[in-house]
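Need residues for this backbone.
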């Protein structure tokens, strides 16, 4: 177990939508967890990161990914996508089903096949941290005929989510949350049209890509879902920009941002988007009027909470998933909040996942932040810093 002290924090985003920004100047990590915010001034640590006035925010939570096996996705013939997303600030990803496995026969999905696919993916892609990121894999595609024994197998595999895509079933078992594909037909070509009536009947835990993935439900259905239901609502990078603005504007006006979650719905036809979650934050802040700190909380704490996860909030006892970032040279933003409000991508310098520094010095997916940061380790605890 080792400790890491991040000091001279200029802006602190909590990930908690109820109080999304705080005047925290330093943060202590002990092992895999956050040990303290603003620990005593003489706190010693095995490693010290002088943020030099940069921003600290929770690692982002992509609520909608489609993994296949580890870092490989056949949808865009890409290797290394998870590590690339990590460099875009995403430390946690939640599978919205593993339906891109080559050769899968969508016309003949049986309960045994979909359960086995989820169990195998949980035991492989979901088992280890790829490049440091955690992927909650093993999300079953629910099909007719599933029995208790299938949910027993999924629970034993520690599956956290099940996905309705082709058929509306009414079962929710063993703490496994449910997510429903909404809108028109997806890339697989087989999902059913799902609008307000089906959602109101199913009452899932999360309504997936409410503004399209890629085709949204009608504007009037979208309005009704926001006005008349209570479950979590997800917006994805795969959606329709007009519908996204409509949905977020309406939720903001009605004080409903606490139920909003974000994801990329990638890899898939939309592509492989390492900066996808940052782009989602910038879009809802700069175009839909959400405050930058709320946008960060929606992309972290809100999305984690809707899926029953502890990550996404920077508070003592929480997992140490942290981004250190700052405005990029040339950005209109003088601070990260300012940059995000303007729609400018943050420059990531460090990412900590599960207490470990997994991006060090600069991200390979964002421009570097303008401000310099200093990292020191071993025996340099009393004010002297070795620049790295
Ligand atoms: Zn999807």
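Answer:
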């Amino acid at each position: 177990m080792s400790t890491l002290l991040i000091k001279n924090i200029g802006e602190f985003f909590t990930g908690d939508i109820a109080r999304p920004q705080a005047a925290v100047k330093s943060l202590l990590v002990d092992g895999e967890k956050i040990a303290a915010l603003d620990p005593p001034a003489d706190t010693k640590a095995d490693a010290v990161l002088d943020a030099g006035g940069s921003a600290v925010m929770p690692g982002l939570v992509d609520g909608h990914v489609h993994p296949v096996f580890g870092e490989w996705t056949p949808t865009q013939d890409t290797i290394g996508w998870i590590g690339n997303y990590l460099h875009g600030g995403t430390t946690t990803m939640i599978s919205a089903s593993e339906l891109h496995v080559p050769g899968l026969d969508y016309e003949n999905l049986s309960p045994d096949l979909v359960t086995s696919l989820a169990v195998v993916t949980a035991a492989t892609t979901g088992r280890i941290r790829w490049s440091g990121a955690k992927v909650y894999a093993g999300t079953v595609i629910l099909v007719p005929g599933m029995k208790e024994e299938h949910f027993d197998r999924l629970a034993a595999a520690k599956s956290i989510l099940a996905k309705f895509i082709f058929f509306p079933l009414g079962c929710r078992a063993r703490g496994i949350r449910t997510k429903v594909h909404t809108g028109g037909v997806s890339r697989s070509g087989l999902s059913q049209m799902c609008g307000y009536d089906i959602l109101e009947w199913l009452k899932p835990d999360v309504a997936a890509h409410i503004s399209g993935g890629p085709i949204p439900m009608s504007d009037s259905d979208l309005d009704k879902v926001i006005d008349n239901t209570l479950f979590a609502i997800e917006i994805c990078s795969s959606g329709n920009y007009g519908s996204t603005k409509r949905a977020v504007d309406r939720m903001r006006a009605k004080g409903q941002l606490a139920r909003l979650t974000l994801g990329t719905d990638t890899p898939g036809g939309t592509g492989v988007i390492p900066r996808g979650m940052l782009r989602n934050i910038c879009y809802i802040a700069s175009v839909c009027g959400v405050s930058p700190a709320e946008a960060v909380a929606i992309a972290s704490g809100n999305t984690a909470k809707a899926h029953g996860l502890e990550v996404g909030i920077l508070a003592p006892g929480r997992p140490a998933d942290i981004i250190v970032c700052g405005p990029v040279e040339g950005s209109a933003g003088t601070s990260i909040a300012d940059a995000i409000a303007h729609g400018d991508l943050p420059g990531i310098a460090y990412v900590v996942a599960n207490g470990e520094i997994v991006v060090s010095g600069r991200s390979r997916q964002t421009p570097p932040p303008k401000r310099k940061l200093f990292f020191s380790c071993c025996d340099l605890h009393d004010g002297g810093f070795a620049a790295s």
